[in-house]
Design a protein that fits this description.
Serine Threonine Protein Phosphatase 5, Tetratricopeptide repeat, two-stranded antiparallel sheet, Rossmann fold, binds S-adenosylmethionine, Methyltransferase domain-containing protein, SAM-dependent_MTases_sf, alpha/beta, Methyltransf_25, 2 domains, 408 residues
């Protein structure tokens, strides 16, 4: 009896500490609850929530499944488990679970948004519209659901509706510069504003964090992604020795597809990326990277002057518009005589950079070549290439291999 009262008290105290952000202390209390009441559904659910906050998705899924099994039909448990499934890229299960959660709690705005975003990620933006419209209406001051609605409308082909929602999200995002920047970026991609010099870092990080569990299967499967191999082949053609002798940096390394293609050149291979979830996938490729760095390339490179013999960026510079700062930073991080290799999506001649509806930048290859020369990078090889498919059509790109002068 005393133990049951203790368990109730620990649960309350744990939830209070959890709400104050003391996640580790809360978890310890939930575990105490389970010690005396191993089948306590609330403790299992809250351990799942805490695990997700710590980024331990495997534990979040285990606890979430257990909570739902212990109390089937509980809306809050289903909502948390569904959110974890979506984060893990198990989209069909996420959609089914979130729908069950909504059957119990139809006006839960967070679950409506999670459902909408999972449907978009599954490639069904039309089905996402109703839950996202409802989420945006339920939270009239919140920018996130309105921004999610704008993206779903864009993906569903409704550019005017997307722009309207992005304007509304911008209005709601006062006081949150990161969200406002994302709304402005979307408006630019829709042709309603001039493209900014780069994609907002938070947008890129969130995009790839949510994409990470599916990235490799989608890119190498459905999207026929081939930039890393094409870049490695051009490096060989340019005479860069594939003898495992160079200090190599894989810029925007993602899950490590590009690292695998660069490995034959590397005595030591390092990777850098903005997205912690992409880096977590890269870390699973044992023995490939000697070091992985979570950073924005524009901030990290200037702090590592002369540190690399080869810096490669496969399908990365299309998240930057103005390439001048990146090329200057790449040149500075190369040792004299070092080599830069990268792909860009090919854009119209005469326009330095354009932002497509796919929310990536395309560059005029002649302009890129001029910027590279100005940064002290001389052309060794250059070739047009198909980078991948998008909506069934080939994405045309240009590959560059350049050398930093020996002088300085
Ligand atoms: C399309 S993926 C390509 C990943 C990898 N290079 C490959 O070929 O598979 C683009 C990657 O670049 C990263 N990225 C984009 N902009 C970046 C920046 N400014 N700094 C660091 N990483 C960036 C993204 O997070 C993402 O993982």
């Amino acid at each position: 009896m005393a133990q049951a009262e203790d368990a109730d008290r620990w649960l309350r105290e744990g939830a209070a500490r959890h709400a104050r952000g003391e996640v580790a202390a809360a978890e310890a209390l939930y575990r105490e609850v389970l010690r005396v009441r191993p089948d306590d559904p609330n403790a299992a659910n809250l351990l799942g929530v805490a695990a997700r906050q710590r980024g331990d998705l495997a534990a979040a899924l285990d606890w979430g499944a257990r909570a739902v099994a212990l109390r089937p039909g509980a809306g809050a448990f289903l909502a948390n488990y569904g959110a974890a499934l979506a984060e893990a890229g198990r989209l069909a299960e996420a959609v089914a679970t979130l729908r069950q959660a909504l059957a119990a709690r139809p006006d839960d705005a967070v679950t409506l948004r999670n459902l909408g975003q999972a449907l978009c990620a599954m490639g069904d933006p039309r089905a996402a519209l109703a839950p996202l419209e409802r989420a945006a209406a339920l939270r009239p001051d919140a920018a996130e659901p309105m921004l999610a609605l704008a993206h779903a409308r864009r993906e569903a082909g409704d550019a005017a509706g997307a722009a309207q929602a992005a304007e509304a999200a911008l209005g709601r995002a006062r006081g949150d510069p990161a969200l406002a920047a994302q709304a402005r970026f979307l408006l630019a991609a829709l042709g309603r504003a001039a493209p900014p010099a780069r994609a907002p870092a938070a947008y890129v990080r969130d995009l790839f964090d949510q994409y990470a569990p599916r990235f490799e299967s989608e890119l190498t499967g459905r999207l026929g992604y081939r930039a890393p191999e094409a870049l490695a082949a051009l490096l060989r053609r340019a005479g860069v020795p594939a003898e495992r002798g160079l200090r190599v940096l894989d810029l925007g390394c993602g899950t490590g597809l590009s690292g695998a293609a660069l490995a034959p050149f590397a005595a030591r291979l390092e990777g850098l990326d903005l997205s912690p979830r992409m880096l977590a996938e890269a870390r699973r490729r044992e023995g490939l990277y000697a070091a992985l760095h979570e950073a924005d390339l524009l901030e990290w490179l200037p702090r590592h002057r002369g540190a690399f013999d080869l810096i490669a960026a496969a399908d990365v510079l299309n998240y930057l518009g103005d390439l001048a700062p990146a090329l200057v930073a790449i040149a500075a991080a190369l040792a004299p005589g070092g080599v830069a290799a990268f792909s860009v999506e090919a854009g119209p001649a005469g326009t330095p950079y354009a932002l497509g509806e796919g929310m990536r930048y395309r560059h005029d290859p002649a302009h890129v070549a001029a910027l590279a020369a100005a940064a002290g990078l001389a052309e060794l090889a250059r070739a047009p290439a198909t980078l991948r498919e998008e909506r069934g059509a080939p994405v045309a790109g240009e590959l560059f291999v350049l050398r930093r002068g020996e002088g300085g």
